[in-house]
Structures are given as C-alpha cells and as structure tokens.
Amino acid sequence: MNLSNLKPAEGSTKTRKRIGRGPGSGLGGTSTRGHKGAKSRSGYSKKIGFEGGQMPIQRRLPKFGFKNINRVEYKAINLSTLQQMAEAQQLTKIGVEELINAGFISSSQLVKILGKGSLTAKLDVEAHAFSKSAEAAIQAAGGTAVKL
Question: Could you tell me if 127 and 90 are in contact, meaning their C-beta atoms sit under 8 angstroms apart?
C-alpha cells in the first residue's frame, strides 16, 4: 500500500449537484431557484432578522432597559483579601499602589472595600469608597479608613 492507492471509504463522499448546466442535466432553466422573486436573482443575500416579509421579532417586541450614564464602577476588594495581603507582606498601610502591585486592580480602576471576612491586623487603608461594615471593621481593629 502507498499514497497512490488511498481512496475514501465506500459511501463517504458524494458528487455535488451541478446546477445551471443546460436542460439535458435536468437542473438547467431556473437552476433550482424557482420563478421570480428576490431569492431567484443573483446577488441576493437575506438580511439578518428577515422573516419573509412578516414583521420581525425585534420590531414586534418593545424596547426596554436603561443605562445610567453617571454610574461609577468600582472594583470590590474584601477585608479577607486585605488581611491576607497584610500577613503575607507585613504591611501596616494598604493603598491603591499596593493593590496594583499585588495585581488585584489596574491603575485605571476605582476601589471599594467591602466587609466580607474578618480583619485582625491594624491597617491604614486608602480607597475610593468603603462599605459601612468594612469601615467599622477597620476602625474596630484599630486602623483608619481614608477615602481618596
């Protein structure tokens, strides 16, 4: 056996239907496109959402929703994350720079400290926003919460 003997498995390939090759082929004339109408013509492409002239679903359904253009997007950091950082790097002050260096945020993101987890280390935390529970927990541990 060599490359010149290879052929596909029996029944795995079919010859394609060659349309538009004259009346003798049985597929001449309109070439399986039927008579008249947009689909019979060259260059036809169905538009996205077209439903054969029926009113499309995106026009039948009402518009809804609202995007607040004044929304401020914060990256959430929990107290448990701050505690782990303080223990791993022996920190007493955690600000935006420390969070960027640790890879938690990018330089363009705003930070909000949330109250999930417990904080035992005395930390001075600088962030753009704090939840009430996070601020209370930081102060209860003897630290300070500074809003930027």
Answer: no
* Average confidence (pLDDT) over 8-20: 94
pLDDT band at residue 71 using 50, 70 and 90 as cut-offs: very high
**What residue type is assigned to position 69 of the chain?**
I
Q: What are the residues whose beta carbons fall under 8 Å from the beta carbon of 141, sequence distance 6 or more?
A: 119, 120, 121, 122, 123
Is the sign of the CA dihedral 74, 76, 79, 82 positive or negative? negative
One-letter amino acid at 40 equals S
Query: pTM of this prediction?
Result: 0.57
> Are 128 and 74 within 8 A, CB to CB?
yes
Residues 78 and 133: their CA atoms lie apart, in Å, by 11
DSSP secondary structure, 122-145, as one string: --EEEESEE-HHHHHHHHHTT-EE
